[in-house]
Amino acid sequence: MSPFLLLAGVLLLVLAGPGLLLASRGTAVARLAGLQLAQAVAVLLLTVLALVLGQPSLLIVPLVTVLLSFAGTLVFTRLLRGVT
């Protein structure tokens, strides 16, 4: 494993903390922002893992995760329309 990919993985794991903290506390809008941050970090982490393992076929997992997180965000924002 190259040092660059190891550093990228560590940085992505460190970035997941604030996203999970935001997603667990605060107003509904702040929780949605934290969820978006956590989903972005998860997609980047899955991409780094696919590159580290040398399996380009695993890149389909982050692609599907991006599509599902986008659809989920649209659903949550529609539900939050009446809350704010």
In short, what is this structure?
By secondary structure, this protein is mainly alpha-helical. The protein has helices spanning 3-24, 28-53, 60-80.
Characterize the structure shown:
- This protein is an all-alpha fold.
- 82% of the residues lie in helices and 0% in strands.
- The chain contains three helices and no strands.
- The chain has helices at 3-24, 28-53, 60-80.
- Helix 1 (3-24) runs antiparallel to helix 2 and helix 2 (28-53) packs antiparallel against helix 3.
- The longest helix is centred in the middle third of the chain and has 26 residues, at 28-53.
- It is flat, with a radius of gyration of 15 Å.
- It starts with a helix and ends with a helix.
- The model has no long low-confidence stretch (mean pLDDT 83).
pLDDT under 50 segments (min length 5)? none
Oligomer: single chain
General form: flat
Sheet having the most strands: none
* End-to-end C-alpha gap: 47 Å
The number of E-state strands comes to 0
Secondary-structure element series: HHH
Q: Number of DSSP helices?
A: 3
Radius of gyration: 15 Å
Question: How much helicity do the residues have?
Answer: over 70%
Structural class based on helices, strands and sheet pairing: mainly alpha
Strand content: under 5%
**Average of per-residue pLDDT values:** 83
Any key phrases for this structure?
single chain, 84 residues, mainly alpha
SSE diagram, text form:
Elements: H1 3-24, H2 28-53, H3 60-80
